[in-house]
């Protein structure tokens, strides 16, 4: 029988809380940037929904650390908190998947086949969310007893329920991975568009990796209990944060790229202004030198004229003097 220690449990909660808060901060940056540029679309609204419900989910992770005699740890509170956390987590994770689908669709022009398929994936995510949400809620309320341990494993005890969840997540994550892979393999995309598609591929890979981890724990042997149930809950918490980061990844890459281009444009303008100033200064210097030369030539001419006039006057005076003396 495997057991997760209290220190490890606390460390994982701190780490996964930081991951979720980081994803929420990325969403805020994304929404501010899109609002400033007037480019908000449905993928941004889906990311906002995922961040909102994730933010509401974070306090539920820490209520369990209250004392055993606390009101929040009563059987009724445990049931309500568990079902609430289940719904909040489901909404956040599937809203993030919808956002990733629409972000991939936004990379391509209207009418493109890849864009149409990505939008269809978003509708598929909404459909699976509704089906699984009803499945979880109905199964938990009908089979739970307040005296029993309230865990996700109890809600999905039957193999049919587990297979339904696994098939839905497998289809969704496979489609999310296949779309950018197909675009990179079959289409010749510009460099900027190709970079965004790669970001979408990384985002889909992150969500798929965490989903596989949750699936492995779901089908793990009973000998892993109670650590299996605890690690499954922790992995779900990690999935919330990773999904939120993943749905903002392509937008984050775009923002960084635009910032670098803008910074490079400023440097280019500064260099152009500097060269222009140097050219102006050089031209001014040449003009000043020519003016000085012109003034020097003019002054020399005036001095030469004055000297000639003085010499002629002297000669005339000498002639007159000689004549007088001759007379």
UniProtKB/TrEMBL annotation:
GO cellular component: membrane
Pfam families noted in UniProt: Fung_rhodopsin (PF20684)
Major location category of this protein: membrane
Positions with biased composition (Polar residues): 307-327
Positions of transmembrane segments: 14-33, 45-65, 85-105, 117-138, 163-185, 197-220, 240-259
InterPro entries named among the record's database cross-references: Rhodopsin_dom_fungi (IPR049326), SAT4-like (IPR052337)
Name the UniProt record assigns to this protein: Rhodopsin domain-containing protein
């Amino acid at each position: 029988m495997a057991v997760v220690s209290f220190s490890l449990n606390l460390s994982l909660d701190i780490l996964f809380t930081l991951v979720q808060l980081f994803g929420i901060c990325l969403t805020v940056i994304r929404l501010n940037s899109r609002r400033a540029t007037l480019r908000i679309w449905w993928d941004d609204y889906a990311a906002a929904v995922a961040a909102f419900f994730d933010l509401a989910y974070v306090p539920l992770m820490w209520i369990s650390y209250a004392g055993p005699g606390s009101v929040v740890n009563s059987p009724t509170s445990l049931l309500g908190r568990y079902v609430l956390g289940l719904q909040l987590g489901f909404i956040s994770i599937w809203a993030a998947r919808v956002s990733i689908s629409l972000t991939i669709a936004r990379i391509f022009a209207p009418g493109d086949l890849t864009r149409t398929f990505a939008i269809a994936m978003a509708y598929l995510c909404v459909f699976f969310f509704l089906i699984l949400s009803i499945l979880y809620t109905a199964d938990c309320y009908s089979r739970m007893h307040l005296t029993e341990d309230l865990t996700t494993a109890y809600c999905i005890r039957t193999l049919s329920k587990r297979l339904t969840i696994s098939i839905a997540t497998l289809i969704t994550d496979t489609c999310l991975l296949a779309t950018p892979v197909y675009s990179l393999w079959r289409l010749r995309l510009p460099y900027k568009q190709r970079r965004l598609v790669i970001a979408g591929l990384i985002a889909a890979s992150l969500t798929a990796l965490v989903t596989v981890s949750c699936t492995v724990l779901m089908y793990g042997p009973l000998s892993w209990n109670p650590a299996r149930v605890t690690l499954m809950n922790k992995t779900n918490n990690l999935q919330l944060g990773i999904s939120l980061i993943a749905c903002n990844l392509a937008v984050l890459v775009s923002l960084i790229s635009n910032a670098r281009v803008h910074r490079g444009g400023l440097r280019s303008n500064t260099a152009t202004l500097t060269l222009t100033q140097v050219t102006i200064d050089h031209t001014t210097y040449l003009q000043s030198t020519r003016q000085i030369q012109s003034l020097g030539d003019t002054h020399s001419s005036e001095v030469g004229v004055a000297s000639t006039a003085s010499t002629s006057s002297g000669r005339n005076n000498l002639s007159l003097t000689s004549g007088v003396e001759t007379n």
